[in-house]
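WP5 quarterly update. Target: Universal stress protein. Source organism: Uliginosibacterium paludis. Length: 147 aa.
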Amino acid sequence: MYKHLLVPTDGTELSSKAVDSAVALAKTLDAQITFLYIQPDFPLPIAGEGTMLAPESREDFARGTEEQARKILNEASEVAKRSGVEANAKTAISDVPYEVIIESAQQEHCDLVFMASHGRKGLAGLLIGSETHKVLTHCKIPVLVYR
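Structure tokens (predicted):
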């Protein structure tokens, strides 16, 4: 059936539960996992008349997000290791996560995307948008949504 799962994770409680479930599924299927963490790009806040307001330097921001990515991906990899599931991890920098998820699934030759959804509805769902919904809409391979 499925032999290679792409599991995007952001370190939230729901995402961590999805990691646990993805690992359990991969173990049952004798599949491997690629964990993916998408780091946000450096924000460029602007205040009146084009004045830049950056609370930290680009280097500090990158260092912080890299550290966060490493921590989250190490935790996910440990879950897989404890269960005897082969896993690797990758990170990317983007402000358009759904595109990176789809591209990563293709690049890694995954046959299933396993991702969490917060299930926002109504105005919150409309305003915030759903990366999961965008992946479901645009991805050419199966997507399993964990809630």
